[in-house]
Design a protein that fits this description.
alpha+beta, Aminopeptidase, 7-stranded mixed beta sheet, 7 strands, disordered N terminus
Length: 247
């Protein structure tokens, strides 16, 4: 029989089906104290992104929502330092040119600066999604997952959480940009009804790549809402996480 864990006060925790042993992930609002951990996730998920996000500012902005995908924190996770970066800038950028190495070094400085005065983590953040609410549009500005936690359904779980936030704020549609070369992400967004509506030429600073603009149909549309809730249930069956329909 499945054992379902339900929500706890102050945490947006989705019930987790435990028919088999699996890591238990949940979604919660990101806080100011999470800034260093979010920066660590960003460095791992987007090693060439520039400039780095100032999470200490972003998580406190009005009409903005940052959500973290996390799991409980075994002490062993932080052996050797709480938010240790994966390798040095010189190692990760070897052979990519002097400008890339300089940019990586500046990111490292920014990352270390973000650790100063950081509080001890309360859980282990494996991914995040950031949403800006502009007029009646929920704009997903970033969605990233640590490479070691890929293929666990976390990107899709964060996307579902973004839809729930869009519903909660009464948004009409959800919009995002995706790299023209990122076929797996485009396939996921297509699954959730996003359609290409435009192109931002040379949008990404690191390599000048184009960004495809994708937008959903009106999310309050009955057919789309039914489809979205069906996808959430399918995700729960496959990965053991259940995202309740928004009210």
């Amino acid at each position: 029989m499945q054992n379902l864990m339900t929500s706890t006060t102050g945490t947006l925790r989705f019930p987790v089906a435990r028919a088999v042993e699996a890591e238990e992930f949940y979604i919660r609002p990101a806080e100011h104290r999470d800034a260093a951990a979010l920066s660590a996730v960003e460095r791992e998920a987007f090693p060439m992104q520039w400039p780095p996000t100032r999470f200490s500012r972003e998580v406190t902005r009005r009409r903005t929502s940052y959500l973290a995908a996390a799991r409980e924190l075994p002490i062993s996770d932080y052996t050797g330092g709480p938010f240790a970066p994966q390798g040095s800038p010189r190692d990760s950028e070897a052979g990519r040119g002097i400008l890339s190495r300089i940019a990586a070094s500046l990111k490292q400085i920014s990352f270390i600066d973000g650790l100063r005065g950081a509080e001890a983590p309360r859980d282990y953040i494996v991914g995040f999604v950031g949403i800006w609410f502009i007029a009646d549009d929920a704009h997903i500005v970033s969605l990233g997952v640590r490479p070691n936690d890929h293929r666990k359904g976390l990107g899709e779980l964060l996307l579902l959480a973004a839809f729930r936030e869009a519903r909660r704020y009464g948004m009409r549609e959800v919009t995002l940009e995706v790299r023209a070369s990122n076929s797996p992400a485009q396939a996921l967004y297509d699954k959730y009804g996003f359609r290409e509506v435009g192109l931002r030429k040379r949008y990404y600073i690191d390599n000048g790549e184009d960004a495809i603009i994708m937008t959903t149909p009106p999310i309050a549309n009955v057919e789309y809402a039914i489809s979205l809730d069906s996808l959430a249930r399918s995700h729960a069956v496959r990965w053991g996480h259940l995202l309740q329909p928004a009210t």
